[in-house]
Amino acid sequence: MKSLRFNINTGFLFLFKIFILTYTFIDLIRRFFDSSKVLLMSLDIIIVTTLFYFVATNKSKIRYINNVSIYLRVILFLFFIIILLQVFNPYYYDIKTYIVGFRSYLLAVPIILIGYHFSKYKLLLNKNMIDFIITLSTITVIYAIFQLNTDYTLLAGSGMEFIAPMEHGIHSHGNDIVQLTSSFFASSKKYGHFLMIMYLIYIGISLSLYKKVNIFIVILFIVALIVSGARESFALFILVNFVLIIKFLNIKWWNIFLVFSIFSLILFILFANDDLLLKIEFMFSTPDEYLRRIYMFFPFAFSDFSNPNMFFGLGVGKYGQETMLNPMLLDTTRGIDRVFFHDLGFFSSAYGFMDAGLAKVTIELGFLGISIYLIFIVYILYLAVKNIMYIGEDKLKLAFSLFIVLWVIYMMKAHPNISDISMSYFLFFSIGYISYKDKKYNDK
């Protein structure tokens, strides 16, 4: 029986690694195909396969859901009902955008069961997983540095244009331009998300197995984030490490000194010119810019209730990336945030809310939907903070709890993080992972 369970869990680990590899390279692969709709579904196919494998190996595993907080189950059930009822929303009904919107909000929810199973059997707590993460992350960093030091004008017509970053290759900063790199990913922001996920998993496994982390691996991720230019991920990286230092105060001062010394040397080698100061200045936004972004987190607080669509919203798939499936719908809803939210002097118009994650939820699901969604956010933050405060032997619970906090910040800053199903998969995997309570945890 134990041998059978071992083989089944080996299959789960294999599928987990396949998912990570697909997440890493799928954007690069898409560049070689004119039609990539099937490729866009590759992560979904892997997840559905994993869920099928999960149920097929032992149907009793579905009962894991009974061990998930009753409050969370009720919240998710109510949210599920609200999403289903949106099929009757009369505003520009489009079946394609509805299905994709339904996918964005709910497809990842069953992954809670997978996360719970991984936590119960400690499937990620092994040296092979650390080697996998370090190897993959190193490959992405090397490729990103190569991108950073490549003159793309020399690639024109050579057939090697795919080397260039796909999106957001440059970013304006005052009167200057900052070069961003995305490695294998569609954007530097997505690359930043990948780095944070890999870093947290590495930290959780390493602290669990060895009670320490490798300083050079930490430096690797610092350099990667600086090279990428993903500001929000870099800021959250600092926040995560601040929490880790507080939780594990036995970190020696000379280790910290060594980290910053080597880090500074690497930066000097990579940016041995004026670009170094510009890059660092770009990574640390001004206080005014941070204040602007904090305002963006809470668009619902400035809702215009005179809007007749404010209570039920426009329906799922009616705002954001999903509307790209229907150009007419995209044109119809362009600038719709100005109708839903009051003008703010800070932005000069409500258009400043256009990127906010909660703006998407408010516009699509209305006051009723955003109310349930906010309850969901508050509750998963409660679960995350609870697990951050009480750390057991499995430090991955700390890592995945930190990711939940990071996901909330990512989501509130930019609505594409709701549409990015890969981020949702990691979110609900994290919720499932921290939901398992072993004996040592319960004794706290």
Quantity of strands, as a count: 2
Approximately what portion of the residues adopt beta-strand conformation? Answer: under 5%
Indicate the overall shape.
Answer: globular
User: What separation lies between the terminal Cα atoms?
Assistant: 32 Å
Supply the number of structural domains: 2
Radius of gyration: 22 Å
The chain-level structural class is mainly alpha
Helix content: 55-70%
The helix/strand order is HHHHHHHEEHHHHHHHHHHHHH
Q: What integer is the average pLDDT?
A: 79
Which sheet architecture does the biggest sheet show? 2 strands, antiparallel
Strand line-up of the largest beta sheet: 1-2
Q: Number of helical runs?
A: 20
Spans where pLDDT lies below 50 across 5 or more residues: 345-351
In short:
By secondary structure, this protein is mainly alpha-helical.
